[in-house]
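If you are new to this repository, start here. Below is one unmodified record pulled from the training split, so you can see the exact layout before writing a loader.
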Amino acid sequence: MTKILLVDDEQRMLDLLELYLEPQGYQCDKAISGKIALDKIDQNNYDLILLDVMMPEMDGWETCKRIKKQTDVPIIMVTARDMKEDVIKGLNLGADDYITKPYDEHVLLARIEALLRRTGKGSVVELNSLVWNNSTHQLTCKGEIISLTPKEFSLIGLLMKNPNRVFERDELIDLVWGWDSDIEGRTIDSHVRNVRDKIRSAGFPIEDHLKTVWGIGYKWTV
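And here is the target side for that same chain:
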């Protein structure tokens, strides 16, 4: 099970995050300060850290800096600020992504999953004969490998791991290409078209599952 360390000086926020993430299959450990977080990292291995910025005594920036001296575990900075300077500061200190409060819980979950994929955390999603395997970075149908580009692989994996959820094009750009990408919605449409063609050619009924939500984006149905 994927293990996440939640770091925030508000106990209520820690409890709410745990309440949401654990039913999604994540094991959560909680730290109410940067110092406690560093102690826990000394004693445990984590797959990802959600780190709040605005904490007393040792803020998230300093905590991030010290964490990266101990481990290369991926970090998502959680902050009420969305100023460009704050984002750059966090990334320069070693953070891998950021999300601003208040955030949609589904967006947070998608960001966690996207970062775990980028850092190689293994996971497998299956639907009948179609298997998406992040540990081998392969999509297979009836045991045969479907050749995908890295972005196509990430895109179909994100959709398959979030069945029945509608993703807007801008959201897919943010989660697959990154928040600082300058690509446009047409690129998403092109990638989806390519993925459909490749999976269809492998003999899987892709039209039954990868749906276009007109005027919005795409979703995966089961």
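Two things worth knowing about this chain: The first helix runs from residue 11 to 21. Helices lie at 11-21, 34-43, 60-70, 84-92, 105-118, 150-160, 169-177, 185-201.
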